[in-house]
Q: What sequence folds into this?
């Protein structure tokens, strides 16, 4: 089926070419980082994780969100999702690949990555995170490829796929729960030491991932002959709405506990992120941007009249996605490090090479996504689909 | 049984992966792994069940008193000096009361002398170290004598330990440290780019019967000994004087005790 990605319009190849350019720039910058060290980034002794780990965390959520299509379709027999489940599964594949690449970019000694397997350490959450991510990647590749292959031939998917599909449901929950445990089990980082961390992660994932999927579906409809359909997109819109409300509610809980308890260590990361401490306010503008976009998206999503208008829905989803991308892909990580372990302030901001490497990884993700979607859409365009 | 080319290739691929992968996994998980041991320990070596320190800051009077301890450590351990806080690598340093005990701060009426007093900070070699719990490769691990060790050859540079350590004891080599070592001590290894390092309690000196370098340079301000031995010097000080530890509420059980002293 992969051969379908090798034929395409001029526009298709232009897009591929553009992605390759961004990837090329990212690779060159990564080679610089590889020789100079992570000192090329904005990271420091006090803020030792930054953009890379933030993007990793955010993308685990995007990957997990495929389950929001799998559950309705396979567990509740919601037939309307039938044609687009594959879009969710392939989005998960590209998101997990980006996650792995971001971890790789963040490592001080990437050539030693196999040490995680050679010296498996069950007490480290990171071992489990790599296990669940690798498993999730495999599940989605196998499930996506097999069901699509069956669709192309106009036959039922083989029986052995069913158990894998059911397995992928708890597995999706596990990848984001385990990723939350990377943060939520650390003593002394007040911002992260919260029992609702995993719940927040899942809520934001189930809002952000499907929001991206809506945008992707609208793009697919525009640039190909395959129409994902009005109703599936509307159903996704409802999922996004519920999940985003849950996410904002959970964030509200964090604020209440921090400020009502009045414990300085719990308050100070929030103060730093949203109003700055002693003139250190680099993150304040983007955190407020995130908050305002969250409000905008909820306003557009909550009224069915707005949501039914696909243009407004697209605006809502884009606002929501950017809002969560800032909140989870950046603020969440930095808030854990500022103030530092001595209640001092060291600020962080990504450097240009760091930003270019990050864009390079995203471009690789989009390339994988484009190729996979090209295959899926070509099969659909040929009318291949079996109820 | 007949098979076409595609089936054959698939079978060949799967058997290769299984043939190479499974024995490798079984060897590392189930196999008997060798443990590095010395045939005979150096008779001079100092041993304990749980090493610990008591830092009496009342005996550290001038900035030079602190600097002597810091230099003693950093010089013999090839700790680089990058000259900027972003890339900074440090094993032992000084800081004021509020920053040393941030959870005990917020006291506007505290006496000025205490507020301005400096403390010596280094790895606490916790009994329940958070860094060891999170390390995905066992590059940081706790020895039987309580030393929280760092294997710079195994470290993958993920910096999970830096996120986990509540005491900011760990540094990362954001750049190649070797050009920034003032005078290399050939007796101790230098580090490479991209690994985490920290105080290793002068394990190399203990092994040949010497006290940790900071203890030796402290002129009696830092006591060192076996916390599990009631008759050790450290235990006697802890039993007779009021001591505090950093962030005890986190349950990591630090092995550094501070005597604040003051006017006695």
A:
């Amino acid at each position: 089926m992969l051969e379908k990605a090798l034929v395409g319009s001029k526009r298709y190849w232009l897009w591929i070419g553009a992605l390759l350019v961004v990837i090329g720039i990212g690779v060159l910058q990564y080679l610089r980082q590889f020789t100079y060290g992570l000192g090329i980034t904005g990271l420091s002794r006090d803020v030792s994780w930054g953009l890379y780990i933030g993007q990793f965390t955010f993308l685990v959520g995007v990957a997990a969100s495929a389950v929001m299509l799998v559950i309705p379709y396979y567990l509740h027999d919601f037939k309307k999702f039938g044609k687009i489940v594959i879009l969710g599964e392939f989005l998960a594949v590209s998101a997990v690949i980006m996650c792995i690449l971001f971890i790789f970019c963040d490592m001080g000694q990437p050539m030693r990555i196999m040490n995680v397997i050679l010296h498996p350490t069950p007490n480290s959450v990171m071992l489990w995170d790599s296990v669940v991510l690798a498993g999730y990647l495999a599940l989605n590749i196998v499930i996506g490829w097999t069901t699509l292959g069956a669709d192309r031939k106009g036959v039922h998917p083989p029986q052995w796929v069913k158990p894998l599909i059911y397995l992928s449901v708890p597995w999706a929950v596990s990848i984001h729960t385990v990723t939350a445990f990377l943060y939520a089990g650390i003593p002394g980082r007040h911002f992260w030491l919260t029992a609702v961390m995993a719940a927040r992660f899942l809520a934001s994932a189930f809002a952000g991932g499907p929001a991206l999927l809506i945008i992707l579906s609208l793009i697919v409809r525009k640039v190909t002959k395959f129409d994902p359909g009005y109703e599936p997109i509307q159903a996704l819109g409802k999922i996004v709405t519920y999940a985003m409300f849950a996410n904002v509610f959970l964030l509200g809980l964090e604020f209440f506990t921090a400020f009502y308890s009045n414990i300085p260590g719990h308050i100070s990361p929030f103060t730093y992120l949203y109003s700055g401490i002693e003139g250190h306010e680099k993150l304040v503008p983007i955190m407020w941007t995130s908050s305002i976009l969250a409000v905008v998206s909820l306003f557009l999503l909550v009224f069915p009249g707005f949501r039914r208008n696909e243009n407004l829905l697209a605006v809502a989803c884009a606002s929501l996605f950017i809002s969560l991308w800032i909140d989870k892909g950046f603020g969440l990580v930095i808030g854990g490090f500022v103030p530092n372990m001595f209640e001092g302030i060291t600020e962080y901001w990504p450097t240009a090479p760091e930003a270019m490497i990050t864009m390079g990884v995203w471009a690789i993700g989009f390339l994988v996504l484009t190729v996979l979607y090209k295959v899926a859409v070509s099969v659909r365009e040929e009318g291949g689909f079996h109820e | 049984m007949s098979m076409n080319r595609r089936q054959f290739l698939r079978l060949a691929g799967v058997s290769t992966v299984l043939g190479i992968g499974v024995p490798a996994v079984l060897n590392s998980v189930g196999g008997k792994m060798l443990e590095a041991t010395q045939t005979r320990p150096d008779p001079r070596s100092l041993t304990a069940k749980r090493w610990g320190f008591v830092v009496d800051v009342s005996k550290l009077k001038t900035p030079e008193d602190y600097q002597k301890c810091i230099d003693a450590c950093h010089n013999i351990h090839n700790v680089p000096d990058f000259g900027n806080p972003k890339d900074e690598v440090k094993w032992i340093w000084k800081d004021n009361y509020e920053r040393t005990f941030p959870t005990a701060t917020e006291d506007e009426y505290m006496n000025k002398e205490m507020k301005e007093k400096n403390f010596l900070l280094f790895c606490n070699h916790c009994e329940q170290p958070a860094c060891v719990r999170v390390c995905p490769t066992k590059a940081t691990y706790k020895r039987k004598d309580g030393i929280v060790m760092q294997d710079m050859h195994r470290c993958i540079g993920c910096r999970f330990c830096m996120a986990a350590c509540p005491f900011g004891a760990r540094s990362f080599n954001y750049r190649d440290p070797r050009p920034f070592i003032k005078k290399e001590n050939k007796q101790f290894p230098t580090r490479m780019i991209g690994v985490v390092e920290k105080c290793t309690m002068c394990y190399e000196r203990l092994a040949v019967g010497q006290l940790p370098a900071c203890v030796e340079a402290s002129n009696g301000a830092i006591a060192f000994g076996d916390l599990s031995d009631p008759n050790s010097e450290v235990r006697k000080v802890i039993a007779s004087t009021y001591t505090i530890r950093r962030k005890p509420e986190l349950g990591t059980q630090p092995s550094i005790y501070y005597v604040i002293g003051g006017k006695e």
In short: The longest helix of chain A spans residues 230-261. The mean pLDDT of chain A is 94. Chain A touches chain B through 47 residues (CB under 8 Å). Residues 147 and 371 of chain A are 17 Å apart (CA to CA).
